Amino acid sequence: MCTVVIDVAEPGGSRLLAVRDEDPERAWDSLGAWWPEQYPGVIGIRDRRAGGAWLAVDRQAHRLAVLLNRADVLDLPEDQVRSRGSLALESVAGRSPEAPLAMHGFNLLEVGPDAARVLSWDGAQLTETPVPQGVHMIAHDGLDDPATARIARWLPEFQANAARTDDWEDRWVALLAASAELDPTDDAAIIRDNRPHGYPTQSLLYCVADVGHHGVEIDESKLTAPGHWG
Q1: b or e along 117-140 (b: 16 or more beta carbons within 10 Å of the residue's beta carbon)?
Q2: pLDDT tens-digit readout, 48-77
Protein backbone atom coordinates (compact mmCIF):
# COMPACT_ATOMS: atom_id res chain seq x y z
CA MET A 1 0.00 0.00 0.00
CA CYS A 2 2.61 2.53 -1.07
CA THR A 3 1.80 6.14 -1.96
CA VAL A 4 3.12 8.41 -4.73
CA VAL A 5 2.59 12.13 -5.28
CA ILE A 6 3.61 13.41 -8.72
CA ASP A 7 3.64 16.81 -10.39
CA VAL A 8 3.76 16.63 -14.19
CA ALA A 9 4.93 19.89 -15.75
CA GLU A 10 4.34 21.39 -19.16
CA PRO A 11 6.07 20.95 -21.62
CA GLY A 12 7.82 18.09 -19.86
CA GLY A 13 9.42 16.75 -16.71
CA SER A 14 7.98 15.37 -13.48
CA ARG A 15 8.77 15.65 -9.80
CA LEU A 16 7.57 13.07 -7.34
CA LEU A 17 7.50 11.86 -3.76
CA ALA A 18 7.17 8.09 -3.25
CA VAL A 19 6.59 6.40 0.12
CA ARG A 20 7.36 2.71 0.43
CA ASP A 21 5.36 0.37 2.65
CA GLU A 22 6.74 -3.14 3.21
CA ASP A 23 7.07 -5.80 5.88
CA PRO A 24 10.00 -4.63 8.05
CA GLU A 25 11.08 -8.25 8.39
CA ARG A 26 11.57 -8.56 4.64
CA ALA A 27 15.19 -7.70 3.82
CA TRP A 28 15.92 -4.98 1.27
CA ASP A 29 18.77 -2.85 -0.04
CA SER A 30 18.96 0.91 -0.52
CA LEU A 31 19.30 2.60 -3.91
CA GLY A 32 22.11 0.95 -5.82
CA ALA A 33 23.21 -0.76 -9.01
CA TRP A 34 22.21 -4.26 -7.88
CA TRP A 35 21.67 -5.74 -11.38
CA PRO A 36 24.86 -4.85 -13.35
CA GLU A 37 24.64 -7.77 -15.77
CA GLN A 38 20.90 -7.95 -16.47
CA TYR A 39 20.14 -4.22 -16.14
CA PRO A 40 23.38 -2.27 -16.66
CA GLY A 41 23.15 1.35 -15.59
CA VAL A 42 19.95 0.80 -13.60
CA ILE A 43 19.71 1.65 -9.91
CA GLY A 44 16.89 0.76 -7.59
CA ILE A 45 15.69 -0.27 -4.16
CA ARG A 46 16.11 -4.04 -4.14
CA ASP A 47 13.98 -6.68 -2.46
CA ARG A 48 16.50 -9.34 -1.44
CA ARG A 49 14.00 -12.20 -1.27
CA ALA A 50 12.71 -11.93 -4.84
CA GLY A 51 15.64 -9.99 -6.27
CA GLY A 52 13.42 -7.34 -7.87
CA ALA A 53 12.79 -3.67 -7.21
CA TRP A 54 10.08 -1.45 -5.74
CA LEU A 55 11.52 1.57 -7.52
CA ALA A 56 14.00 1.63 -10.41
CA VAL A 57 15.80 4.35 -12.37
CA ASP A 58 17.73 4.38 -15.64
CA ARG A 59 19.51 7.71 -15.61
CA GLN A 60 20.81 7.36 -19.17
CA ALA A 61 17.31 6.73 -20.55
CA HIS A 62 15.78 9.33 -18.17
CA ARG A 63 13.21 6.82 -16.90
CA LEU A 64 11.82 5.99 -13.46
CA ALA A 65 9.25 3.40 -12.42
CA VAL A 66 7.49 2.72 -9.11
CA LEU A 67 5.46 -0.37 -8.23
CA LEU A 68 2.33 -0.19 -6.04
CA ASN A 69 0.21 -3.20 -5.12
CA ARG A 70 -3.55 -3.29 -5.69
CA ALA A 71 -6.40 -5.79 -5.28
CA ASP A 72 -7.00 -8.33 -8.03
CA VAL A 73 -9.25 -11.11 -9.24
CA LEU A 74 -6.38 -13.41 -10.30
CA ASP A 75 -7.51 -17.04 -10.34
CA LEU A 76 -4.25 -18.99 -10.21
CA PRO A 77 -2.67 -21.32 -7.64
CA GLU A 78 -0.03 -19.42 -5.68
CA ASP A 79 2.74 -21.69 -6.97
CA GLN A 80 1.97 -20.41 -10.48
CA VAL A 81 1.96 -16.71 -9.59
CA ARG A 82 5.05 -14.75 -10.68
CA SER A 83 6.71 -12.07 -8.59
CA ARG A 84 5.98 -8.47 -9.53
CA GLY A 85 9.55 -7.47 -8.67
CA SER A 86 10.73 -7.42 -12.27
CA LEU A 87 8.13 -4.86 -13.40
CA ALA A 88 9.93 -1.63 -12.46
CA LEU A 89 13.25 -2.96 -13.76
CA GLU A 90 11.79 -4.05 -17.08
CA SER A 91 9.91 -0.76 -17.37
CA VAL A 92 12.99 1.46 -17.15
CA ALA A 93 14.69 -0.88 -19.60
CA GLY A 94 11.94 0.02 -22.09
CA ARG A 95 9.85 -3.13 -21.70
CA SER A 96 6.46 -2.37 -20.21
CA PRO A 97 4.21 -5.26 -19.12
CA GLU A 98 1.69 -6.77 -21.52
CA ALA A 99 -1.39 -8.81 -20.62
CA PRO A 100 -2.07 -11.52 -19.73
CA LEU A 101 0.10 -11.57 -16.61
CA ALA A 102 0.45 -14.36 -14.07
CA MET A 103 0.87 -11.75 -11.33
CA HIS A 104 -1.18 -10.26 -8.54
CA GLY A 105 -2.60 -6.78 -9.06
CA PHE A 106 -0.47 -3.68 -9.34
CA ASN A 107 -0.22 -0.06 -10.35
CA LEU A 108 3.02 0.61 -12.22
CA LEU A 109 3.85 4.30 -12.46
CA GLU A 110 6.14 4.94 -15.43
CA VAL A 111 7.81 8.34 -15.63
CA GLY A 112 9.86 9.62 -18.58
CA PRO A 113 11.21 13.02 -19.60
CA ASP A 114 8.05 13.99 -21.50
CA ALA A 115 5.19 12.08 -19.90
CA ALA A 116 4.01 9.79 -17.12
CA ARG A 117 1.42 7.05 -17.06
CA VAL A 118 -0.01 4.35 -14.78
CA LEU A 119 -0.38 0.77 -15.97
CA SER A 120 -2.93 -1.04 -13.79
CA TRP A 121 -3.44 -4.82 -13.66
CA ASP A 122 -6.40 -6.30 -11.76
CA GLY A 123 -5.72 -9.93 -12.58
CA ALA A 124 -7.95 -9.83 -15.67
CA GLN A 125 -7.31 -6.57 -17.52
CA LEU A 126 -4.34 -4.25 -18.03
CA THR A 127 -5.31 -0.59 -18.41
CA GLU A 128 -3.33 2.58 -19.09
CA THR A 129 -4.00 5.95 -17.46
CA PRO A 130 -1.95 8.92 -18.71
CA VAL A 131 -1.00 11.26 -15.88
CA PRO A 132 -2.06 14.75 -17.01
CA GLN A 133 -0.31 18.01 -16.23
CA GLY A 134 -0.58 18.99 -12.57
CA VAL A 135 -0.31 17.34 -9.17
CA HIS A 136 -1.74 13.85 -8.66
CA MET A 137 -1.67 10.99 -6.16
CA ILE A 138 -1.90 7.25 -6.46
CA ALA A 139 -1.93 4.41 -3.95
CA HIS A 140 -3.71 1.04 -4.14
CA ASP A 141 -6.62 2.12 -6.38
CA GLY A 142 -6.95 4.53 -9.31
CA LEU A 143 -5.16 7.80 -9.96
CA ASP A 144 -6.59 10.56 -7.74
CA ASP A 145 -9.22 8.13 -6.47
CA PRO A 146 -11.32 10.06 -3.89
CA ALA A 147 -12.34 6.75 -2.30
CA THR A 148 -8.74 6.38 -1.09
CA ALA A 149 -8.77 8.24 2.22
CA ARG A 150 -5.18 9.51 2.09
CA ILE A 151 -5.77 10.93 -1.40
CA ALA A 152 -9.01 12.65 -0.37
CA ARG A 153 -7.23 14.17 2.63
CA TRP A 154 -3.84 15.18 1.20
CA LEU A 155 -4.17 15.72 -2.55
CA PRO A 156 -5.55 19.27 -2.13
CA GLU A 157 -2.61 20.10 0.15
CA PHE A 158 -0.06 18.92 -2.40
CA GLN A 159 -1.91 20.64 -5.24
CA ALA A 160 -1.70 23.89 -3.31
CA ASN A 161 2.07 23.37 -3.10
CA ALA A 162 2.92 22.37 -6.67
CA ALA A 163 6.53 21.26 -7.20
CA ARG A 164 7.45 24.15 -9.51
CA THR A 165 10.00 26.00 -7.35
CA ASP A 166 13.53 25.19 -6.18
CA ASP A 167 12.35 24.45 -2.64
CA TRP A 168 9.74 21.91 -3.73
CA GLU A 169 11.43 19.01 -1.94
CA ASP A 170 11.42 20.84 1.39
CA ARG A 171 7.78 21.82 1.02
CA TRP A 172 6.63 18.33 0.06
CA VAL A 173 8.64 16.67 2.82
CA ALA A 174 7.14 19.19 5.25
CA LEU A 175 3.68 18.11 4.07
CA LEU A 176 4.67 14.48 4.55
CA ALA A 177 5.78 15.34 8.09
CA ALA A 178 2.45 17.08 8.70
CA SER A 179 0.60 14.01 7.48
CA ALA A 180 2.54 11.94 10.02
CA GLU A 181 0.73 13.76 12.81
CA LEU A 182 -2.12 11.35 12.05
CA ASP A 183 -1.99 7.98 13.73
CA PRO A 184 -0.22 5.55 11.33
CA THR A 185 -3.26 3.25 11.47
CA ASP A 186 -5.58 6.05 10.26
CA ASP A 187 -6.95 5.41 6.76
CA ALA A 188 -5.92 8.96 5.82
CA ALA A 189 -2.30 8.52 6.96
CA ILE A 190 0.49 8.47 4.36
CA ILE A 191 3.11 7.26 6.86
CA ARG A 192 1.40 4.00 7.68
CA ASP A 193 1.14 0.96 9.91
CA ASN A 194 -1.11 -1.44 8.01
CA ARG A 195 -1.06 -4.29 10.53
CA PRO A 196 -4.49 -3.48 12.04
CA HIS A 197 -5.85 -3.62 8.47
CA GLY A 198 -4.59 -7.19 8.04
CA TYR A 199 -1.28 -6.48 6.30
CA PRO A 200 2.23 -6.71 7.84
CA THR A 201 3.46 -3.64 5.99
CA GLN A 202 4.63 -0.35 7.47
CA SER A 203 6.16 2.74 5.88
CA LEU A 204 9.93 2.30 5.74
CA LEU A 205 11.29 5.10 3.54
CA TYR A 206 10.51 7.80 1.03
CA CYS A 207 12.20 9.03 -2.14
CA VAL A 208 12.04 12.37 -3.91
CA ALA A 209 12.89 12.46 -7.61
CA ASP A 210 13.09 14.91 -10.49
CA VAL A 211 12.77 13.37 -13.98
CA GLY A 212 13.29 15.31 -17.20
CA HIS A 213 15.51 15.81 -20.21
CA HIS A 214 18.25 16.88 -17.80
CA GLY A 215 18.24 13.34 -16.40
CA VAL A 216 16.99 11.83 -13.15
CA GLU A 217 17.86 13.19 -9.72
CA ILE A 218 16.76 11.02 -6.80
CA ASP A 219 17.29 10.90 -3.04
CA GLU A 220 16.22 8.27 -0.52
CA SER A 221 15.44 8.84 3.16
CA LYS A 222 14.80 6.02 5.63
CA LEU A 223 12.39 6.39 8.53
CA THR A 224 14.01 5.94 11.91
CA ALA A 225 11.32 3.44 12.91
CA PRO A 226 8.85 1.59 10.67
CA GLY A 227 5.56 3.42 10.40
CA HIS A 228 6.73 6.47 12.34
CA TRP A 229 8.13 9.85 11.38
CA GLY A 230 11.43 10.65 13.06
Answers
A1: bbbbbbbeebeebebeeebbbbbb
A2: 999 999 999 999 999 999 999 999 999 999
